[in-house]
Design brief:
Blueprint (H helix, E strand, L loop, with lengths): L1 H21 L7 E2 L11 E2 L2 H23 L1
Antiparallel strand pairs: 1-2
Length: about 70
């Protein structure tokens, strides 16, 4: 059951990350390159939020599923 939850969370994180990176993000969520940065193209700063939201959604889904069984 734990492996299924981890796999679902990973899939949600990947799908949500790709969806948000392809969308038009506000300027505050994009790290612009300058002379102190290594990257040369604008980089989205949304990765941590996608991991957080997918983990929370997976925990909520599995908790609701266990409550329905009980």
């Amino acid at each position: 059951m734990v492996c299924l939850a981890a796999f679902l969370s990973l899939l949600l994180s990947i799908m949500l990350g790709r969806l948000l990176c392809k969308s038009n993000l506000p300027v505050a969520l994009i790290d612009m390159p300058d002379d102190r940065k290594i990257h040369t193209t604008p980089t989205p700063l949304i990765g941590g939020l996608t991991i957080l939201f997918s983990s929370l959604l997976t925990m909520l889904l599995f908790n609701l599923r266990q409550n329905i069984r009980s």
